[in-house]
Amino acid sequence: MVVVVGGIWGLQRVNVAKLHQLDQEVEKVDTGELRGLIRTIANLGLAGESLRAFTKSQRDYQHVVENELAGLQTALLDVELENKQFQFVKVRQSQNEIKAAIIDADAKLTKIKKALVAIQSAQVAVRDQLKTLRTDYQAARKTILAKSYAFDSALPALEAELQTIATSLHEVATVSESGDHAAASEQMDGLTVSVSTLQDEVARLPKLVNTVVNEFPGQLDELDSGFHELAAQHFVFTQDVPAGIEEAQAAVKLAHDQITDLKVDDLADNVAKTAENIDGLYATMEKELNAKTAVQKQTGDLRQFIAHAQKQNHTLLLELDHLNQSYTLTHNEQQTAESLRDQLDAIAESFTDAQHQIQDNTAIYSEILSFYNQTRNDLHAVETQHQAINAGVSDLQAREHQAVASAGDFANAVRDIKYEVSRHQLPGLPRPYLDFFNVVTKELKQLENDLNQVKINLDDIAKSLIKIGEDIDQLKDQSRTVVDSAGMCEQLLQYANRYKTTHAEVETAATQAKDLYQHYNYSHAADVIAAALEKVEPGAYQKVEDDYLKSQSAALF
């Protein structure tokens, strides 16, 4: 029983603490700040929409204070009574309801405060903005009055704008002073745009007006007189200059209307485009003037360059024709040179046409200068090709002499090989060796025949020289093998005589080796007798070989 009573008493104390906290939260919802703000705004003398907005916020505040906050105080007293009566379930429910009501009331007062602050701030904002607009307006007005000449026909429209803005400033000030700051703020938006537009016009118009009124007319007069002067000198242009001048004059006339009507953006676009067109007309005329000077300066040199290239080509063709009678030209030298001749003829013809245009006063000098530049590049390319062809054929005679000398050297080498082999007085030569010797001999005869032709192909002869040179080296190797094998076989058979009576296998090997020797199979014969001797006397072969090599004089191969 004591435990139960203690628990109930403890729960009551907890609820009392929570209720005390809720009471403090209710007091914080309205600290009196809003009440003071309402009194301050009430003394501003509001009117119109501002007064209506203030009145609504004031009524909303009174409703929250007198109904919702007062109701919260009553609810707190009721919960205290419920707690004393041990109605704990109902106490918990009531506490949750009070918390929700506190949050709702606080949100409403926050919204009301925001609306009141906006009303209060509107007065300051309108006042400051109005001051700024007056300052900007006065600065623009001062510039217009002081430099009225700089605005030309735009001045009446600008003065009308000044009057309109002055009236609007007065009206906004009147509305603001009456206390209707909300209405004044709305009117201020349009007034701000008007003043900003005026500032932009005052800043941009003087330069645009100066360009239209002072610069363009002088430039167009200069272009017109310049064109007629150059036309009298028979200049022809890539652009219709008179039409371009007329187009620019029409644009200037339109620009004057745009100045009068204060169409500043359109005017700026028009001026930029017209300036670009006028610059283009100047560039067109200047291009032809400069081109004529360059053409006159370059004509003589280019004529000589063309003539030199044609002469060079003619000489080259004669040389190629002469060489073609003795040599086969394998790199299309004649065809290339003839193609270059046709190209040079076309260049010369175009150059003559250009001179006729100059004489007939129909020349567009910039186009002729472009032709000159391209022609000069083409002539350099032709010259380079001429030099390449010359370099390719200039050594044909030298190459022929070198080929004849090489052929003589090869013939001497084969003759020396034949002599050296015959000097050893062998009973005969192996068939493969003779076949290859005949191949080399036929190659030499064919080379001699190719060199004795009326017209020779040095590229093919060069290939033959490489092949014959390699074959002669191979023939030397084969000749050395045949002679050395036969010599070694003879020495080995002589050395074997000392063992024939005592070693039947040596006698048998000697007989077999002699038979192979007589059939010109010298290498096999030497191997047979050498093998038998090595069995009887190891190292015998090396001993015989050393003696053989010492007895040999320097061979031709």
What does this structure look like?
By secondary structure, this protein is mainly alpha-helical. The chain folds into three domains: 1-203, no CATH class; 234-391, no CATH class; 425-554, no CATH class. The protein is 87% helix and 0% strand.
**Overall 3D geometry?**
elongated
Helix content: over 70%
- The SS-based structural class is mainly alpha
Number of domains: 3
- Tally of alpha and pi helices: 16
- Proportion of residues in extended strands: under 5%
Rg measurement, Å:
61 Å
The largest β sheet comes out as: none
Count all strands and give the number: 0
> Overall mean pLDDT score?
82
Low-confidence stretches: 1-7
Order of helices and strands: HHHHHHHHHHHHHHHH
How many angstroms does the end-to-end distance come to? 140 Å
Brief description of this entry?
It is found in: Cell membrane. The chain is mainly alpha-helical and 557 residues long. The protein has helices spanning 2-29, 33-42, 48-84, 88-146, 155-177, 181-232, 241-260, 264-326, 333-359, 365-393, 396-423, 431-451, 458-500, 504-518, 522-536, 540-551.
Q: Which characteristics define this entry?
A:
557 residues, mainly alpha, 16 helices, 0% strand, elongated, disordered N terminus
